[in-house]
C-alpha cells in the first residue's frame, strides 16, 4: 500500500511522570489488599502521584516541551494543540487551551479529545488528517492524566490500578511517501457506559451534597467485563489496521499496547501469536495512566532503542466509552 504524500510522522516524543512513587505496600496500609494480589492480577508494582497543585496541564507542558525540543522545533512552530484527557484541570475550558497558554502559544487552535485510554490513538488520527488537509505544519498532541484526583482511595477495585503522567508527540508532514502514520482504525460502543464511569459531576447528575457523600465523582468500574471487552477489541483492531495497510504482523518490530493490565496484554499477545519480547511494558512502574499510557511507553521504548527508523510499530488501545483503536506506523527519523 502506498499512502499519498504528504506523509505524517511523529517528529518528537516527550514524557513526564511526577516524582512521587506510590507503592503497592503503601496502598495496602489503607485498603484491604496486598502487593501480591495487585502484582498477580494486574502486573502493577507502583504508580506516580502528582504533587498537590500539579495539574494535568502542568504535566502536559513538561512532556510537550521535551517533545518539541526533540523534534528540533521551537514552540512557535506549533500551530495546533490537541489534548486527550479524562481528568481535565476543569470542565471548562479545555485542557488543550490551558496547555497552549502555558506554552506561550498565542491564538493557536486548541481542543480536547475525550476518548479515555484510547485518547492517544484518536489524536493520532485527528492530527494526521488535519495535517493532511493542509492547514497546519506541526501539531502537538498530548495525553495527560491526574487519575489520582478521580480515584476513590477507599475502593480497592480501582485505586490500585491508576497513576498520573503525561506523554506528548509532535506530528509533522514530510514529502517522503509511505512513512509515519500508515493507517488507523477507531471504534466505540457507548451502549453500556456504566462499565467504566464517574456517575456524577456531569450535566446528567450535577454535584450535590448527596453525590459527594456517595463518592459518585470517582471512577467506578466493572473490571471483569472491561477485561473481556478489552481482549476482544484489541486483537481485532490490530488485525484490522494491518490488513488495511497490507502489512503482516511478522513485519512489525514492536507492538505497543495501552498499559492497563499485564494479563490483558498477555492475552492479546497470545491471540495475535506475538512473543512478549516484542511488546514494551512499563505498567509495573506507572500503572494505568489512561491517555498518557501509550506515549509514555512509546517514548521509553524509542529511547531504549527497541525500534528505529524504518521499523513498523503497531499501537493499540482500549478505554472507557468504550473506545478502542490501533495505529500502524512506519517509524521515520527526520535526518
Ligand atoms: N485487592 C484484593 N482483592 C481485590 C482487589 C484488591 N485490590 N480488588 C478486587 N479484589 C477482590 C474482589 O473483591 C473479588 O473478591 P470476591 O471474589 O470476594 O468478590 C476478587 O478480588 C476477584 O475480583 P475480580 O474483579 O474477579 O478480579 P480480576 O481477576 O478480574 O482482576 C482487575 C481485577 C485487575 C480489575 C481486572 O479485572 C482488570 O484489570 N480489568 C480491566 C480493567 C481495566 O483495564 N480498566 C482500565 C480501562 S482503560 C480506561 O479507560 C481507564
Describe the protein's architecture and organization.
The structure is a single chain. The protein is α/β, with parallel strands linked by helices and 335 residues long. It folds into 2 domains: 7-178, Thiolase/Chalcone synthase (Peroxisomal Thiolase, Chain A, domain 1, 3-Layer(aba) Sandwich); 181-330, Thiolase/Chalcone synthase (Peroxisomal Thiolase, Chain A, domain 1), CATH 3.40.47.10. The chain has 11 helices and 13 strands. It has helices at residues 24-28, 35-42, 56-70, 95-102, 119-132, 156-159, 209-213, 223-245, 262-272, 283-286, 293-303; strands at 7-16, 20-23, 46-49, 80-84, 110-113, 138-146, 164-174, 180-188, 196-197, 220-221, 252-257, 312-319, 323-330. It has a 5-stranded mixed beta sheet with strand order 1-7-6-4-5, with helices on both faces. Strand 4, helix 4 and strand 5 (110-113) form a beta-alpha-beta unit. Helix 3 (56-70) crosses helix 4 and helix 8 (223-245) packs parallel to helix 9. The radius of gyration is 19 Å and the shape is globular. The chain starts with 6 loop residues before the first strand and ends in a 5-residue tail after the last strand. 50% of the residues are buried. The model has no long low-confidence stretch (mean pLDDT 96). Acetyl coenzyme *A (ACO) is lined by residues 33, 37-38, 41-42, 116-117, 156-157, 160, 196, 221, 223-224, 226-227, 230, 260-261, 264, 288, 290, 319-320.
Amino acid at each position: 500500500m502506498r499512502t499519498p504524500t504528504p506523509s505524517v510522522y511523529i517528529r518528537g516524543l516527550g514524557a513526564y511522570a511526577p516524582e512521587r512513587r506510590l507503592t503497592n505496600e503503601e496502598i495496602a496500609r489503607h485498603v484491604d489488599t496486598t502487593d501480591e494480589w495487585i502484582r498477580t492480577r494486574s502486573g502493577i508494582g507502583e504508580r506516580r502521584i502528582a504533587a498537590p497543585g500539579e495539574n494535568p496541564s502542568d504535566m502536559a507542558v513538561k512532556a510537550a516541551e521535551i517533545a518539541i525540543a526533540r523534534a528540533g522545533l521551537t514552540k512557535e512552530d506549533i500551530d495546533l494543540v490537541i489534548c486527550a484527557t479524562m481528568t481535565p484541570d476543569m470542565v471548562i475550558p479545555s485542557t488543550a487551551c490551558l496547555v497552549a497558554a502555558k506554552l506561550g502559544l498565542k491564538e493557536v487552535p486548541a481542543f480536547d479529545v475525550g476518548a479515555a485510554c484510547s485518547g492517544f490513538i484518536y489524536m493520532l488520527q485527528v492530527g494526521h488528517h488535519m495535517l493532511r488537509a493542509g492547514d497546519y505544519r506541526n501539531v502537538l498532541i498530548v495525553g495527560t492524566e491526574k487519575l489520582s484526583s478521580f480515584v476513590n482511595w477507599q475502593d480497592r477495585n480501582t485505586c490500585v490500578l491508576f497513576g498520573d503522567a503525561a506523554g506528548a508527540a509532535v506530528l509533522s508532514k514530510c514529502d517522503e511517501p509511505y512513512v509515519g502514520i500508515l493507517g488507523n482504525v477507531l471504534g466505540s460502543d457507548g451502549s453500556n457506559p456504566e462499565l467504566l464511569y464517574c456517575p456524577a459531576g456531569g450535566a446528567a447528575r450535577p454535584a450535590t451534597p448527596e453525590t459527594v457523600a456517595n463518592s459518585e465523582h470517582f471512577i467506578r468500574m466493572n473490571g471483569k467485563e472491561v477485561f473481556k471487552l478489552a481482549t476482544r477489541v484489541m486483537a481485532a483492531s490490530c488485525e484490522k489496521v494491518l490488513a488495511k495497510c497490507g502489512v503482516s504482523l511478522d513485519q512489525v518490530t514492536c507492538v505497543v499496547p495501552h498499559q492497563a493490565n499485564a494479563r490483558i496484554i498477555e492475552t492479546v499477545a497470545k491471540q495475535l501469536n506475538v512473543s512478549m519480547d516484542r511488546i514494551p511494558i512499563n505498567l509495573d512502574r506507572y500503572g494505568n495512566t489512561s491517555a498518557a499510557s501509550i506515549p509514555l511507553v512509546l517514548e521509553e521504548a524509542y529511547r531504549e532503542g527497541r525500534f528505529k527508523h524504518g521499523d513498523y510499530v503497531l499501537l493499540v488501545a482500549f478505554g472507557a466509552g468504550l473506545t478502542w483503536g490501533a495505529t500502524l506506523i512506519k517509524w521515520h527519523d527526520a535526518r
